[in-house]
Design brief:
Elements (H helix, E strand, L loop, with lengths): L20 E6 L4 E6 L11 E6 L2 E9 L2 H10 L11 E4 L2 H11 L2 H14 L5 E7 L5 E7 L7 H11 L2 E6 L2 H8 L10 H4 L9 H6 L6 H4 L14 H8 L8 E4 L2 E9 L4 E5 L6 E5 H12 L34 H16 L5 H27 L2 H10 L6 H22 L1
Parallel strand pairs: 7-8
Antiparallel strand pairs: 1-2, 1-4, 3-4, 3-5, 6-7, 9-10, 10-11, 11-12
Helix pairs in contact: 3-4
């Protein structure tokens, strides 16, 4: 909720007529208030100062100074001569800043503990945030509740638990989203966290005026309510809809009764559908008024005479073929080529390549054996006998050992019989 000071470059014409009220922000800009500068210091935006608080002091950052403060006070209805306005004490010292840092560290623990206490007391409320004063004498509890909550007992428990003066403030879901902050669906920071201070009511009829589909997921913001930005263009749509007839929801034609589907304010067309068809027919405003006047005279026209909608979107031109051979080098393919060459040089293939190589070698060996058998069968018989006769018979060494063993046993048996 920052305000741009567009009057900071203007020179001061009269020191007596200068605005002595400054705007001070607390807790990273979530809370702002006006304070009277009774000191002799001329403060600038961004200075840390110590101001009067509730039963103590508080430390804040200056957000606005000069003539722009008077405009802000007029906007919020604050009088410059209000005697109850709190005062600026001094520039914040190191002790003030150190004490504020210590008390700010208590806030997360206070939120958890305060929620547990509210749950124990069975109160239908949610503690959203706890803000500690810089001197630690006061704590403000921001809560969300649908209805009225009787927290008299809760305040006593909080005062006993945290040893501070307790202040309860009820906020809505939109105020909570503004305190938390975030990025909207448009890609920009939330309006309620930057500049939007007044929240107007938003309902689904606003979406219907703008021909938006009633989809709660798309129309809801981070607060769970309808987006505030739906109100931004509502006046423009209402002005454009004044040129459309209001009593033309149904038209009678020869094919049946046509029902109004939507109004296109950008093309000044009204879309109708017939009961026996799912097709939608765009009609001009003049044609709709003419059909309606004929229906009042109990005349039913033959057709709706729909117009042809021409798309204004430019056609995408397909790019012509361009020969880019030699202009683009794919490093990944070059690396794969180098890797493949290195594998070929280093050794035999591995994995699937090795299996394929073994299968190829086995097939080649089988073919050689078949060729040898065919050659042997094609020789004449006398050549085969000659080769077999000349070739010495080779005996298996294992059979030779068995024969020698049998001969030895036979000789032993012969000797025993002789004896």
């Amino acid at each position: 909720m920052n305000t741009y000071d567009w009057l900071h470059n203007l020179p001061i014409a009269d020191m007596d007529s200068q605005c002595n009220v400054i705007e001070v922000s607390f807790n990273k800009g979530t809370r702002k208030d006006f304070y009277r500068n009774t000191t002799v210091h001329l403060f600038e935006k961004g200075d840390l100062i110590t101001v009067e608080g509730v039963s103590g002091v508080d430390v804040g950052e200056i957000s606005l100074t000069g003539e722009i403060v008077r405009l802000q006070m007029k906007k919020y209805g604050v009088k410059e001569g209000n005697p109850d306005m709190k005062k600026v004490l001094r520039i914040a010292t190191e002790r003030d800043l150190e004490q504020r840092g210590i008390n700010k560290q208590r806030e997360p623990e206070a939120v958890i503990r305060s929620r547990a206490i509210a749950r124990q007391l069975k109160l239908d409320m949610k503690i959203s945030q706890v803000e500690m004063q810089a001197d630690g004498r006061k704590a403000t509890f921001y809560y969300i509740a649908d209805g009225r909550v009787d927290f008299r007992e809760l305040i006593k428990v909080y005062a006993t638990e945290f040893k501070v003066k307790v202040e309860m403030r009820q906020i809505g879901a939109r105020q909570e989203a503004g305190k938390v902050g975030g990025i909207g669906s448009c890609g920009r920071e939330l309006c309620c966290a930057t500049w939007l201070t007044e929240f107007k009511s938003v309902n689904t009829s606003i979406a219907r005026y703008q021909n938006l589909s009633i989809n709660q997921t798309k129309l809801s913001g981070q607060c769970g309510r309808l987006k505030c930005c739906l109100n931004y263009e509502l006046d423009t749509y209402l002005d454009a809809l004044q040129g459309f007839p209001n009593d033309c929801d149904q038209l009678e034609v020869a094919k049946g009764r046509a029902y109004l589907i939507k109004k296109d304010i950008f093309k000044n067309l009204m879309w109708y559908s017939l009961p026996d068809s799912n097709k939608q027919y765009p009609l001009t405003i003049e044609r709709v008024r003419k059909i309606k006047s004929l229906n009042r005279q109990n005349i039913v026209p033959e057709e709706l005479e729909a117009v042809e909608v021409v798309s204004t979107k430019p056609k995408e031109v397909e790019p012509a073929f361009v020969d880019v051979v030699g202009q683009i080098s794919l490093r990944s393919l070059e690396r794969a080529d180098k890797k493949r060459k290195q594998q070929r040089r280093s050794g035999p293939p591995q994995g699937n390549q090795a299996v394929a190589a073994n299968q190829g070698g086995a097939q080649q060996l089988g073919q050689q054996q078949k060729q040898g058998q065919n050659r042997a069968n094609s020789r004449p018989q006398h050549q085969q006998q000659r080769h077999s006769g000349n070739r010495p018979q080779q005996q298996n060494p294992q059979r030779k050992r068995e024969n020698n063993g049998n001969n030895g046993n036979n000789n032993n048996n012969g000797n025993k019989q002789a004896n």
